[in-house]
Amino acid sequence: MDDRGVDALLVIITPQAMTNPTAIAKEISALAATTPKPILAAWLGAVRMQEGLRILNDAGIPTYTTPEQGVRAFMTLVGYSRNLEILYETPKDIPVEFTLDRQALRDRFDGLSAGPGDVLSEENSKALLEAYGIATARPVPAATAEDAVRAAEAMGYPVVLKILSPDITHKSDVGGVVLDLLGREAVLAAFAAIVGRAAALRPEVRIDGVTVQPMARIEDGVQMILGAKKDATFGTVLMAGMGGTAAELFGDRALGFPPLNERLARRMIESLKIYPLLQGYRGRPAMAVPKLLETLMRLSYLVADYPEIAELDINPLLVTPDAVLALDARVVLDRAAMGRKAEPFAHLALRPYPEEYVREVALPDGGTCVLRPIKPEDEPLWMELLAKCSRESIYQRFRGFFSWTSHEVAVRYCYIDYDRELAIVAEIEENDRRSLMGVGRLAADPMKKTAEYAVLVGDPWQDKGLGGILTDYCLEIARDWGVRKIVAVTNSDNPRMVAVFEKRGFAIKPDPEGSFIEVSKDLE
């Protein structure tokens, strides 16, 4: 148990004439009280083992009827620990920022989805992707063979022809894709073949011709598939995996919940069997994995913004050493959700980053700062803020001292559920370096009727009005949530915060038996 290479102990006892399972159980129970490492027991036998099993169970030591059960139980602990470690891993600070007018995009989406049918055309599907910064190979519709030739000659050979039909989802199933066409005659022949095969195999569907787009060199990259689907239980779910015509055959895929940050997107990609190909394999160059991660993140934002999207497929998505390109795309609409009023992001299991609460404000000294919700990427800045706080400031905020340099402690304050909790940081930039000056935190009950408030201002920025600015903004957010009452607890020897609360009309209630003061304010 003292060996650092040992993470747990599995004790196995079998009934033998020279064995005393009850005495051994007492010794193991005593050992378990001296170590934080898990001890598991497999007491194999019947009547002679019962008293030992009772002693082990009373000591909180799990017991199993076979060693294999103990091993599986321990590996469950290992898997759970690894999942927590992955979940709370500090992501890289590479946020994907949109300089987009979301209202204009909403108007454009409403226009694209106004037509008949539940499936957007390839052209409209790709237009929606491009609006979110996802590069696509844009198709040109051609109703006739001569239209296809003119489009091909305008964009340059080689080209790809695909069947154009609102009723055909999987074009390859009807022979509706022809690649690498190098001239006029090839385009004419391909047009006739594509339309003829589709009409023969699916005589009931409407065929509007073909689409023409430049030929991408697939052999230079890795084909992937990105997609999303709205599930009745889990809401919209994202998928990434091996693409191309063999995508369903091999089933190499990973699932995740939108919205994604860099850490979550990377974990999805790294879990795929084709990930070694993306890194570079046997002399092949590494693919543009950072651009792939950004594309996956952008896709997650797209489906988060539009609950009307029932399904979305990008297949294939070509990942090369230099770029990521959507070669084909399809968006299926949920007509039942069109025009229906619902809570924002009700179609998601996770609440996206609340960008609507990002605001630039003026400081009393004439400077400015940005008030915004905290992010997991802020953990290093949060650590720096605490390092600038005196022991008195730490005690007044947390009503005690703690090891703030611990990552395990930091995740409690930087990784939050935006649906019920919000930490607003005051960020300032000086000499091209960002710093957090303070944090105001709201934690609401499940019904959002009451919220607890707390605030911390770093020592260099105290007595400059920042605590009041954070408090006023958090009160504004609480009203926006529909919170009816704000409560807080502060120390009786913290006159700055007591003054902040008194100025804003909080009811002050000192604790006659302690050193704390309870404050509250009705927001109705």
Salient structural properties:
alpha+beta; 6-stranded antiparallel sheet; 4 domains; D-amino Acid Aminotransferase, Chain A, domain 1; Rossmann fold; globular; 524 residues; 25% strand; Dna Ligase, domain 1
What does this structure look like?
- The chain is an alpha+beta fold and 524 residues long.
- The protein has 4 domains: 9-87, Rossmann fold (3-Layer(aba) Sandwich); 138-214, Dna Ligase, domain 1 (2-Layer Sandwich), CATH 3.30.1490; 222-337, ATP-grasp fold, B domain (D-amino Acid Aminotransferase, Chain A, domain 1); 355-522, 3-Layer(aba) Sandwich (Aminopeptidase).
- 34% of the residues lie in helices and 25% in strands.
- It has helices at residues 21-32, 50-58, 67-87, 102-112, 122-131, 145-155, 184-201, 247-250, 262-270, 275-279, 289-305, 379-387, 391-398, 407-414, 466-481, 495-503, and strands spanning 9-13, 39-43, 63-64, 140-142, 159-164, 177-181, 209-214, 222-231, 235-242, 253-256, 309-319, 324-326, 329-333, 359-362, 368-373, 421-430, 433-444, 450-457, 485-491, 507-510, 516-522.
- An 8-stranded mixed β-sheet has the order 14-15-16-17-18-19-21-20, with helices on both faces. Strands 8, 9, 10, 11, 12 and 13 form a 6-stranded antiparallel β-sheet that branches. Strands 4-7-5-6 form a 4-stranded antiparallel β-sheet, with helices on one face.
- Helix 15 (466-481) links the parallel strand 18 (450-457) and strand 19.
- Helix 1 (21-32) runs parallel beside helix 2, helix 6 crosses helix 7 (184-201) and helix 9 (262-270) crosses helix 11 (289-305).
